[in-house]
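Dear colleagues,

For the upcoming journal club I promised to circulate an example of a predicted protein-ligand complex. I picked one with zinc ion because it came up in last month's discussion. The inputs are reproduced below in full, followed by the predicted structure.
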Amino acid sequence: MNTMQRLMRGCLVKIGPFLAKRCSCCGVTKEIEKFQDDNSKASGVRSWCAVCMRKADTARRRKPRT
Ligand SMILES: [Zn+2]
């Protein structure tokens, strides 16, 4: 499996000196530092980046319009 395929599967990939991962929400590949730790995951980090997590959190707090 090449680097691109691993990224598309949400695997941790080493790019130069960095460990990176593709956010399954926004689809952007980011450094591992941009993801929050999650020990319940095999990769050890969340599948969503911190930006997406924050957005989801903000949306959740907003009262839904019915
Ligand atoms: Zn994201």
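Two points we might discuss: The chain has a mean pLDDT of 90. The pocket of zinc ion is lined by residues 23, 25-26, 28, 48-49, 51-52 (CB under 6 Å).

See you all on Thursday,
B. R.
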